[in-house]
Design a protein that fits this description.
The chain is mostly helical. The protein has a two-stranded antiparallel ribbon with strand order 1-2. A hairpin with a 5-residue loop joins strand 1 and strand 2. The chain starts with a helix and ends in a 6-residue tail after the last helix.
Length: about 280
């Protein structure tokens, strides 16, 4: 049976592999080539070398969007994972109604990013109007924290479910042994539970990291990058470069930004995975 599975495994893998090659590998290679060109369509491209990349690295708006994205990612990653872990810890304490709370916290993740963006835009603008503060279109600080709140509201419940699964896999024998040895709740948390759920932490940090960097629809709906591109993240900046301007020079320029963005996200994600996996405990 095992030999038969090994023999016919490539047949079952082939459809998925073909879809991956057609849907990702080939477009990525073509996009990489186009990033060195000026073009209006893929059949009308002229080679210009590294000038698109030179322009991207000297573009003040692109650099500002990078700084804003990094600042947003750091705060959102920490906030989402801390809140999700706290909720997961509370909801694994045999409290009444835990299933209801898990459902309630998870539900925002089912709502589309565009819808969430417009909902929170209305709520935040109403609050700012009551407080007599400038609305989101003129308030970069409110736009930044509004995006943090929106991201936390959407992602905390999803990460909470992953942490709950990790905490439920922590052996009761380890906790009982620690309690017999006189360990308190904080000692159990820091020395047993957190090390034992590092695999869950790796997954959640990876997901929040990639989601934060590639955030687009919420940014578009909530602030649209206003005021004056102050709340514009990298994905929105690339979109505005590629689609909001006409002329073949902007297409290659936007494509170069997209390649830089892709390489950046992959590199940061790999560094994060290696850093957190090195701390995982083998169970």
């Amino acid at each position: 049976m095992e030999k038969a599975l090994k023999r016919y495994a490539p047949i079952f893998v082939l459809p998925t592999f073909a879809a991956f090659v057609i849907g990702f590998i080939l477009p990525f290679i073509q996009g990489l080539y186009l990033s060195f060109c000026k073009f209006t369509t893929v059949d009308n491209a002229s080679w210009v070398g590294i000038s698109n990349y030179t322009a991207a690295f000297t573009d003040a708006s692109f650099m500002n969007s990078f700084k804003f994205t990094v600042l947003f990612a750091i705060v959102s990653i920490v906030s989402i994972n801390v809140l999700a872990f706290v909720l997961a810890t509370l909801l694994t304490q045999n409290l009444r109604g835990t299933n209801v709370f898990r459902t309630v916290f998870f539900m925002p993740n089912l709502i589309g990013g565009i819808v969430l963006g417009y909902i929170w835009q209305i709520l935040i603008n109403c609050l700012l109007a009551i407080l007599g503060q400038p609305l989101l279109a003129l308030n970069s600080t409110a736009g930044y924290w509004g995006m943090i709140i929106l991201m936390c509201w959407q992602q905390v419940g999803y990460m909470m479910i992953i942490y709950i699964a990790g905490l439920q896999n922590v052996s009761d024998d380890l906790i009982e042994a620690a309690e017999i040895d006189g360990a308190g709740k904080w000692d159990i948390l820091w020395r047993i539970k957190i090390p034992m759920v590092m695999s869950s932490i790796t997954i959640c940090v990876f997901l929040t990291l990639t989601n934060s960097f590639k955030l687009f629809d919420q940014n578009l709906a909530l602030t649209g990058g206003e005021p004056s591109h102050a709340t514009e993240m990298m994905a929105l900046n690339i979109y505005q470069t590629f689609y909001a301007r006409s002329g073949m020079q902007w297409k290659g320029y936007g494509q170069a930004k997209a390649v830089i963005f892709c390489v950046l996200v992959i590199a940061i994600s790999l560094i994060q995975l290696r850093a957190t996996r090195s701390k995982e405990v083998q169970q």
